[in-house]
Amino acid sequence: MARNLQLAAWLAVGTIAISIGGQQQATCALTLAPSYQQATVDIRPVAATEQYQDGLTAVAAGNLNQAMSNFDRAIKLDPRYFQAYIERGNVKTEVGDLASAVADYTTAITLNPQSVAAYYNRGTVLSKTGRHQLAIADYNTAIRLDPQYAQAYMNRGNELDDLGDSAGAISSYDRAIQIRPDYALAYLNRGIAHGRSGHRPQAIADLQLAAKLFKQTGQIDRYNRTLQIIKSF
Questions:
Q1: Angle at the Cα of 51 (from 45 to 57), degrees rounded to 5?
Q2: Each residue's pLDDT tens digit, 90-105
Q3: Which residues lie below 8 Å from residue 98, measured CB to CB, with a gap of 6+?
Q4: Do residues 46 and 9 lie in contact, with contact meaning Cβ atoms separated by under 8 Å?
Q5: Following CA atoms 11, 16, 22, 190 in sequence, which dihedral angle do they give, to the nearest 10 degrees?
Q6: What is the pTM of this model?
Q7: pLDDT digit string, tens, across residues 161-204
Q8: CA 39 to CA 85: how far, in whole Å?
Q9: Of 47, 32, 135, which Cα lies nearest the Cα of 86?
Q10: Do β-strands 26-27 and 30-31 pair in parallel, antiparallel, or remain unpaired?
């Protein structure tokens, strides 16, 4: 099963939330999610907001160096601009500067302890660096702040499965699927966790449903890779 588990991790990688309140947008390679952290009264220097917006535009265009400069300027103009720390952390994650990304997310959390995106993103980076227990703690906080955050449940399941807690992982995947019944990655990873636990019928059923959902949404590479896992059972 080791080859299959590695494949699942490859399929699930790359989910990062941003700090835009109440919107879901697609940009660059990042997967964006609502964060719900906008302050009731958001008074910032106009120049800082302009730099922040220019940074988001640069990310959407794939110009990460320019985006980094924009977020640097936004933070210099307003050192309490927690959204800018999150976005700068996202760019640092994208370019592989993971330690510095964790520092930016931590600063964002200090400035706004209710920031779902900051906890979720820090958990994602902590996972990438092998700090699974700390990643689980951050996903738990993100879930406490937003109990409907399906991606946080799914990623927590991945961490638990990596630590050998297949039952805990399956429970997390169950919750992700309850929230998002079409969540192909959650079915995929739950199927692998069932397989690890010796639950072959449940594993096959989940993997077949994951393959069907990948095909329906045009994710042909993931569809084909899931079929490879099924054939290995």
A1: 140
A2: 999 999 999 999 999 9
A3: 92, 125, 128, 129
A4: no
A5: 30
A6: 0.84
A7: 999 999 999 999 999 999 999 999 999 999 999 999 999 999 99
A8: 15
A9: 32
A10: antiparallel
